[in-house]
Specification:
By secondary structure, the chain is of the alpha/beta class. It has one domain: 3-Layer(aba) Sandwich (Rossmann fold). 57% of the residues lie in helices and 13% in strands. It has 8 helices and 5 strands, in the order βαβααβααβααβα. Strands 2-3-1-4-5 form a 5-stranded parallel β-sheet, sandwiched between helices. Helix 1 packs across helix 8 and helix 4 crosses helix 7. The relative contact order is 0.21. The model has no long low-confidence stretch (mean pLDDT 92).
Length: 210
């Protein structure tokens, strides 16, 4: 079976990370070779970049954020994701390029055409075979994040209008980009994971038949 690349996207608090863990367990139980990873932080370099970006107490400029995130992604793609895909793994990543367009573009106001040029270098043209957008209202996402104090970072302090622009950005991408599926993430964790698994199995079956 060829490798399959799946990106889990959504606002912080959308439930994407919980769904990824559940789906990974379900796929492993089926005997599917999988790799789970995340951005930023999927590599050793990425873990250091994650600390710089998410745990910094100083103000980080949007352009600096963009370049740091794409440095993480370049290392991630070339040393982890592509090698796993070449071995036939199903790769599940918690965030990929769409997060940069949404957070640094729609959220932080950088030009999305400029972002696209940087992303092209960082990804080497790699695109997910399926992007799952876990969509909930900004109110639900913020409430979920507020109740989880174990993983707070500076992005949790974003103003409500910024979070609104980011959700709008995700929904715009889901309407205009190829291979996106929107998951209603307002249900229970089991319900959300089931919807995600169905979408992923459909893509795996289609690609296996090629």
């Amino acid at each position: 079976m060829p490798g399959v690349f799946i990106a889990f996207e959504g606002l912080d608090g959308s439930g994407k990370t919980t769904a990824l863990r559940s789906v990974a367990s379900l796929l492993e139980a089926r005997g599917t070779p999988i790799l789970t990873t995340r951005e930023p932080g999927g590599t050793e370099l990425g873990r250091r970049i994650r600390t710089l970006v998410l745990e910094s107490t100083e103000t980080v400029q949007p352009e600096t954020e963009l370049l740091l995130m794409c440095a993480d992604r370049s290392e991630h793609v070339r040393t982890l994701i592509r090698p796993a895909l070449e071995k036939g793994f199903v790769v599940l990543t918690d965030r990929f390029a769409a997060s940069t367009i949404v957070y640094q573009g729609f959220g932080r106001g950088l030009d999305t055409d400029d972002i696209a040029q940087v992303l092209a270098v960082a990804t080497g043209g790699l695109q997910p075979d399926l992007t799952l957008l876990f969509d909930v209202s900004n109110e639900v996402a913020h409430q979920r994040r507020s109740s989880d104090t174990s993983n707070i970072n500076h992005l949790d302090g974003l103003a409500a209008d910024v979070r609104t622009r980011m959700r709008d950005g995700y929904l715009h991408l889901s309407d205009t980009e190829r291979n996106w599926t929107v998951i209603d993430a307002s249900g229970s964790p089991d319900e959300v994971a089931s919807l995600a698994l169905q979408a992923i199995l459909s893509v795996i079956e289609r690609m296996s038949a090629q």
